[in-house]
């Protein structure tokens, strides 16, 4: 019985010395569950059996190294999964809600629309920051619409309340913008807001660059959350590249020249000429000039040779 237990735990990868110690303490009649609990309590860890390892087994690979898709999925965040190739999203809840409510009502529907838009694209890490006092019943000076949405998002671990408290009847609120920028900076994600955070840009030079490069602005068009297709301008990346960790460069699709071999633009032609792949793309005028210059240059050299003594 003792030998069978030894073989069983050796297959699990535990050392023989640790198994012998546990069996001596608990006795030969100890159950396998009790032996396993005692091994874990002692801090014994299974050792990798390199001799018995099969090449077909999936092995863990260090972060940043190349491996198969199966091996990468064991690493969690660094896997080749489509969801893991997307950047984390940090949403300024107050800014989004007030924008959807036309700066008059704190509309929680706007937050839900933004979260749903990023979920449809495949983003798994989405965090929304809202001050804690928004949990309180709405007042006339600060109306709230759809307050139950905040409770649902909190249960889904999407919404995070920034702390606030009352001191002698006055509300003390923590600066939620600092939470938003700090979490997005640490996660190397994207900030969703129409605020420029100029005070935080002056506070930290690293945050200044991050806010300039990772701020995603948006608009609401008929209850539709719409970020721009070019978040950093015309010459910047597309929206899909902006939201992904590994941007994909678009393939150049050349259009054939409609004039074909009769084209007279030469290298100035913006269209594709398959017959000019291995030829110098000169215009017809340049080719004629080059041909006329050759005989003239040869004639001048012959005249110089004749005149020379």
TrEMBL record:
C3H1-type domain segment(s): 251-276
GO CC list: cytoplasmic ribonucleoprotein granule; nucleus
CDD domains assigned to the protein according to its UniProt record, in alphabetical order: PIN_Zc3h12-like
Top-level taxon: Eukaryota
Gene3D superfamilies, alphabetized: 3.40.50.11980
Record-linked Pfam families: RNase_Zc3h12a, UBA_6
Zinc fingers (C3H1-type), renumbered ranges: 251-276
Gene Ontology MF terms: hydrolase activity; mRNA binding; RNA endonuclease activity; zinc ion binding
Cofactor entry: Mg(2+)
Keywords of this entry: Endonuclease, Hydrolase, Magnesium, Metal-binding, Nuclease, Zinc, Zinc-finger
Family listed: Belongs to the ZC3H12 family.
PANTHER family with a match to the protein in the record: N4BP1-RELATED (PTHR12876), RIBONUCLEASE ZC3H12D-RELATED (PTHR12876:SF11)
Protein name per its UniProtKB record: ZC12D ribonuclease
Source species taxonomy: Eukaryota, Metazoa, Chordata, Craniata, Vertebrata
């Amino acid at each position: 019985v003792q030998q069978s237990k030894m073989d069983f735990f050796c297959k699990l990868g535990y050392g023989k010395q640790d198994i012998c110690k546990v069996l001596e303490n608990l006795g030969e009649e100890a159950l396998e569950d009790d032996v396993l609990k005692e091994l874990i309590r002692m801090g014994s860890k299974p050792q990798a059996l390199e001799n018995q390892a099969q090449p077909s087994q999936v092995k863990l690979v260090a972060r940043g190294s190349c491996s198969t898709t199966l091996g990468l999925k064991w690493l969690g965040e660094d896997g080749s999964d489509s969801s893991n190739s997307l950047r984390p999203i940090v949403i300024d809840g107050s800014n989004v809600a007030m924008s959807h409510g036309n700066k008059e009502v704190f509309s929680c529907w706007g937050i839900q629309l933004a979260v749903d838009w990023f979920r449809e694209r495949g983003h798994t890490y989405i965090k929304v920051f809202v001050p804690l006092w928004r949990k309180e019943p709405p007042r006339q000076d600060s109306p709230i619409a759809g307050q139950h949405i905040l409770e649902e998002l909190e249960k889904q671990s999407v919404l995070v309340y920034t702390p606030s408290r009352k001191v002698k009847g006055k509300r003390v609120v923590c600066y939620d913008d600092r939470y938003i920028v700090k979490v997005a900076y640490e996660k190397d994600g994207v900030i969703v807001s129409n605020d420029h955070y100029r005070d935080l840009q002056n506070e930290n030079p690293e945050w200044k660059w991050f806010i300039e490069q990772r701020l995603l602005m948006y608009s609401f068009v008929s209850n539709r959350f719409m970020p721009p297709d070019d978040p950093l301008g015309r010459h910047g990346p597309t929206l899909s590249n902006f939201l992904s960790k590994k941007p994909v460069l678009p393939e150049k699709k050349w259009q054939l020249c409609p004039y074909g071999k009769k084209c007279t633009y030469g290298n100035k032609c913006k269209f594709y000429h398959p017959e000019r792949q291995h030829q110098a793309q000169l215009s017809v005028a340049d080719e004629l000039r080059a041909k006329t210059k050759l005989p003239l240059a040869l004639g001048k050299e012959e005249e110089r040779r004749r005149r020379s003594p």
